[in-house]
Amino acid sequence: MCNNTSSNISKQIIGFHAHEWHLFLCLLLISIGADLFLSYVCHIDFDNDIVSNMSVAEENFALLIFAPIVETLLFQFGVIELLLLLRKNDRIYFSIACLISIVLFILSHGFRIEDILGVSAIGISLTYCYAFYRTKESRMKAFGLTSLLHFLYNVLSLMLSYFIP
Hints:
By secondary structure, this protein is mostly helical.
């Protein structure tokens, strides 16, 4: 019995099963990988006019604190949950709500082809993360993990922008 209990505990990390963390890390790696590919192989420049006029402290706050929380609140939680108020148990409608969430997230970051390509992978990853972890009982878990994924993506993107020319 002791082995069974320790086995169950080892299968969970901070309340989540190992397969959930694998998905979370895969989404993060796919998003960063897509950015690296577009930046360094396709030579697409993701110049952001909004943060370029800010001080370093303001930029870091905007990218690391404000954006993950507010954008998750608006584009994943807000859009999906608002649209699902119209039809609660419809899988097709849920898929449409997710697609609308992705499109709005991408378009909120710009209309140039570089902007659209640059945020497509993270937009899809964030919405998939929210949709995967969302349950009736645990919308906050989905919100928290989606915000965390967005935060980690922004941290890695910021670090890469300093260390990789």
